[in-house]
């Protein structure tokens, strides 16, 4: 991963924003602060690893509304909800909707930093997996229709003999197609082939 992760901070309270920025930068992480959810949406570019520190209750678009917008656009950015006592119920709802965690104010700095690092690790893993998925999907497009048929049967557990019978071709021809599939997908073994196809099938 060559892109440095960014911790995005959205809070309408200037003192809170400044404090969070100082805390994040104190451990050599990049911080980017925003006054509102809309300001964040106007500048955010997906595909960068990191996490989002999000206040629930803000003027204009709320934290929950922003979460739904990000989800609808398939922006895979771990969200840590920062909430006061009066918004715990909202934070729980955010968790149910897929937020990474919620932390009540006032919070311990180290606990927040620990969760930020956990969220970034998840984001980097997700980004790498997305890149691998895209690569496999591009390789799958190189297969012929017949090779797709053989691939689907092989990863479903069919033997060469069973594939040959169902497709009404010889076992030798199945072996040739199977070898071509392995070569085109860069699969070192049947287990590797299954792993790649499962990765491509993930949403």
Can you describe what's shown?
With 203 residues, the protein is of the alpha/beta class. It folds into 2 domains: 6-129, Rossmann fold, CATH 3.40.50; 142-201, Winged helix-like DNA-binding domain superfamily/Winged helix DNA-binding domain (Arc Repressor Mutant, subunit A), CATH 1.10.10. The chain has helices at residues 14-25, 37-43, 63-72, 88-96, 109-140, 145-155, 160-167, 171-185, 190-201, and strands spanning 6-10, 30-34, 50-55, 79-83, 101-104. Strands 2-1-3-4-5 form a 5-stranded parallel sheet, sandwiched between helices. Strand 3, helix 3 and strand 4 form a beta-alpha-beta unit. Helix 5 packs across helix 9 (190-201), helix 6 crosses helix 8 and helix 7 (160-167) crosses helix 8 (171-185). The longest helix has 32 residues, at 109-140. It is elongated. 24% of the residues are buried. The model has no long low-confidence stretch (mean pLDDT 89).
CATH architectural label of the largest domain: 3-Layer(aba) Sandwich
Run of helices and strands: EHEHEHEHEHHHHH
Total domains, how many?
2
Main beta-sheet strand count, sense and barrel state: 5 strands, parallel
Q: What value does the average pLDDT take?
A: 89
> Segments where pLDDT lies below 50 for 5+ residues?
none
Radius of gyration, in angstroms, nearest whole number = 23 Å
Task: For this entry, give a set of tags.
single chain, about 200 residues, alpha/beta, Rossmann fold, Arc Repressor Mutant, subunit A, about 55% helix, elongated
């Amino acid at each position: 991963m060559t892109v440095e992760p960014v911790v995005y901070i959205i809070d309408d309270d200037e003192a809170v924003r400044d404090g969070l920025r100082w805390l994040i930068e104190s451990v050599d992480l990049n911080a980017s602060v925003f006054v509102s959810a809309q300001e964040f949406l106007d500048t955010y570019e997906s595909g960068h690893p990191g996490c989002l520190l999000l206040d629930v209750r803000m003027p204009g678009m709320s934290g929950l509304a922003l979460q739904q917008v990000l989800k609808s656009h398939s922006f895979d950015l771990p969200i840590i909800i920062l909430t006061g006592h009066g918004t715990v119920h909202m934070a729980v709802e955010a968790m149910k909707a897929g937020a990474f965690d919620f932390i009540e104010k006032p919070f311990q700095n180290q606990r927040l930093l620990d969760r930020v690092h956990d969220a970034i690790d998840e984001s980097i893993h997700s980004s790498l997996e997305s890149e691998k998925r895209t690569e496999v999907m591009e390789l799958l497009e190189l297969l012929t229709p017949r090779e797709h048929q053989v691939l689907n049967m092989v990863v479903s557990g069919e033997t060469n003999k069973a594939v040959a019978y169902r497709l009404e071709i010889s076992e030798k021809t199945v072996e040739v197609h199977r070898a071509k599939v392995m070569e085109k997908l860069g699969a070192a073994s049947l287990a590797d082939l299954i792993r790649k196809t499962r990765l491509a099938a993930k949403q």
